[in-house]
Specification:
Number of strands: 20
Helix content: 40-55%
Radius of gyration: 43 Å
Shape: rod-shaped
Strand content: 15-25%
Distance between the termini: 60 Å
């Protein structure tokens, strides 16, 4: 609640800041000269319409004439002072001509941003005309204003007594405005030093663009750079406006971007930046008025674009959404009272205009900056809560991993103990069988029973040995920086230890290598190859096809063919089309090698894809074959340890097990 109150207080304090009470008053009327062809004599004879001070005129072509009648303020003396000063603003008005009659002749004085700086008499950076005599019979004064851009003249009249107070008031207000802007920039820089985020970087750029534009509008830039020409300063002022609007759009985008904005929102942001870029190009090419009109349109679209972004962003928290929607609606109200009178010259809009768009020194970015800082604090609070949740989740994962490791260690110790305890009685049984065979010849039935006991003993011994080996392999940590292994040589070595070697068909491209732990890789390949050999249809070959991958593409290389082939010539890849079950991790490497091992299988014996890698899974049709259903499960878990993957598919009467590992 305190932050909302502070935002409203600063906003209205700036909006209601006023100068001191004048001792003279002005009666002003307006005449537009679109072709800029009227002479002072023609203007003096023309009809004028009422004009209110600080009335926003918008974009006007040609010249604007203002007729001034200087009167004593209500309750003041009937006869005015012997001298007074006209103060015209803002500082960026390009040319201001004052006409008045003296001794029956028209006298002309010239001020404006394009005139030499020495002629600017106001110490508070406005354009001043010092008149040393009260006009006889209250004769009118005529101002001609020519400005490429939106026009919102501020005209004041001061006596020698009131001038110092008014100058001091405006100087104080401009100084306060700049101090607030500099303070917000300093806050942004401090936050950026502690949290180097893109959002804070854009905020600092946004606040810097505001300071540059306010300084240019207030005349501070002209004072700091006295050698600059009026044309250069006017161009810079327009460019600072374009930069300010662009940074406003970027800041709005930076607030929404982390929260999953929709595609139309992002496209709208690109369009707004294109408008600002086009505006800057037009300003550089001396089409200043069109450029400023273009950037003003962009500025008018930003709050509606941001309102859509706050409404449609998918990942915004409810509190963030409420703040952004409220800020966008307030921004739209500012648009109604500031920007629309510039784009549309309507008396009703001008009547309620409180800001002269970004020419007003009060618009130093404080409201937008305070909303942004509020959102930043909310974001930081949300990040702290998120980090706390992540740390808690990591703690739980660590505890779960520790518990899992403890269970794995206990399981390994149990397996080692059981292996040892089972090996001893199995050895005793085998010794007893050998002793029985040395006895006198036994009957045929007894001999058959001894043979059954011997086969069962050997099978049990093989199972115990395999379980022990699997448990040991799963506890092995892979090497950190393994040396490359020649794929063809490694596969050939493994084939030499397997049965049915005459029915293998192998395709390996030249130069194919594995870059992973040899011991663990051999366990994976041996399990996959043994599984294919065990369950292959009689008389059908088992195929091994190797391919090199880069990203998700197949690398075509000349091939070599160890072992028996099906008649394909070296260099063919066997029609292998690598399939990805998940994206390859570019953080590991951008080159991969894929080994596809396939065998024919009876349609009634195809493994269940959902269970094929489960521990102890075996198809019902193969329960009579040796094994415990551990091989594929172990192969998959070990492949993950060496940063690889094992996947399964079946097609056209064949099953395919695919191993992908770094090359």
């Amino acid at each position: 609640m305190t932050r909302q109150f502070l935002l409203v207080l600063i906003f209205f304090w700036q909006a209601l800041a006023q100068a001191s009470t004048p001792t003279l008053r002005l009666e002003m009327t307006l005449l537009k000269d679109p072709q800029a062809r009227l002479s002072i004599e023609q203007v003096a004879a023309s009809e004028f319409t009422p004009l209110k001070n600080n009335q926003v005129l918008g974009f006007v072509a040609g010249s604007v004439w203002v007729r001034l009648q200087v009167r004593p303020a209500q309750g003041g003396p009937e006869q005015g002072p012997r001298s007074f000063t006209l103060r015209i603003g803002p500082n960026n008005l390009e040319q201001i001509d004052l006409f008045f009659q003296r001794d029956g002749q028209w006298v002309q004085q010239v001020r404006g941003a394009l005139t030499p700086q020495a002629s600017r008499a106001c110490p508070d950076y406005l354009h001043c005309f010092a008149l040393d005599a009260w006009p006889p019979d209250a004769a009118p004064l005529y101002l001609r204003i020519e400005h490429r851009g939106f026009t919102a003249p501020q005209i004041e009249v001061d006596t020698p007594d009131s001038l110092p107070a008014d100058v001091a008031t405006r100087t104080r207000n401009v100084t306060i405005s700049m101090v607030i802007g500099l303070g917000l920039l300093a806050v942004g820089i401090v936050l950026l030093l502690t949290d180097r985020s893109r959002l804070l970087l854009i905020f600092c750029g946004f606040q810097l663009s505001i300071l540059l534009h306010v300084a240019s509008n207030a005349g501070l830039l002209a004072t700091a750079w006295p050698s600059a020409s009026g044309t250069t300063l006017a161009t810079l002022n327009a460019l600072f406006l374009s930069l300010r609007v662009a940074m406003t759009g970027l800041l709005a985008w930076a607030v929404i971007q982390p929260h999953q904005p929709t595609r139309p929102y992002l496209q709208g942001g690109g369009l707004l930046l294109l408008l600002c870029a086009g505006s800057a190009i037009l300003i550089f090419s001396d089409d200043k008025q069109i450029g400023i009109q273009l950037v003003t349109v962009a500025y008018a679209l930003i709050p509606f674009w941001q309102l859509y972004g706050a409404w449609s962003a998918r990942a915004l928290t409810p509190s963030h959404r409420r703040v952004l929607l409220g800020a966008s609606l307030v921004y739209i109200l500012m648009l109604v009272f500031g920007v629309l009178p510039i784009l549309f010259d309507r008396p009703l809009l001008s009547e309620f205009a409180q800001f002269h768009h970004v020419t007003d020194w009060r618009l130093n970015g404080a409201p937008i900056a305070l909303v942004f800082l509020w959102l930043t604090m909310m974001e930081r609070s949300l990040q702290r809560r998120t980090r706390a949740k992540e740390l808690e989740a990591l703690r739980r994962q660590a505890e779960a991993a520790k518990l899992h490791q403890s269970e794995a260690d206990e399981r390994g110790a149990l397996i080692d103990m059981l292996t040892h305890e089972l090996k001893n009685p199995l050895g005793t049984i085998r010794f007893a069988l050998a002793s029985l065979r040395q006895q006198p010849p036994l009957s045929g039935d007894a001999q058959q029973r001894l043979q059954t006991i011997d086969v069962s003993t050997r099978r049990m011994d093989e199972l115990v040995e395999r379980v022990a080996n699997f448990a040991k392999v799963e506890r092995i940590a892979p090497k950190v920086n393994p040396l490359p292994l020649d794929a063809a040589a490694l596969i050939q070595d493994l084939l030499s230890d397997l049965p049915r070697s005459e029915t293998w068909e192998v395709q390996v491209p030249e130069g194919a290598t594995f870059r992973c732990d040899r011991q663990l890789l051999c366990v994976v390949l041996e399990n996959l190859m043994t599984n294919a050999s065990k369950y292959a249809l009689p008389g059908e070959p088992v195929r091994i096809e190797v391919a090199l991958l880069k990203g998700e593409g197949l690398v075509q290389t000349p091939g070599q063919t160890p072992g028996q082939t099906d008649g394909r010539t070296p260099g063919q890849t066997g029609g292998l089309r690598p399939r990805l079950t998940r994206p390859l991790d570019p953080a590991v490497t951008d080159r991969w090698v894929r080994v596809e091992i396939s065998n024919g299988v009876d349609p009634a014996s195809i493994p269940d894809p959902a269970s094929v890698f489960d521990r102890y899974y075996r198809h019902p049709n193969f329960q009579n074959k040796s094994g415990m259903g551990l091989g594929l499960s172990v192969a998959k878990s070990i492949a993950q340890k060496i940063r690889g993957e094992v996947s399964y598919r079946h097609s056209n009467g064949r099953v395919f097990f695919v191993l992908t590992v770094p090359a």
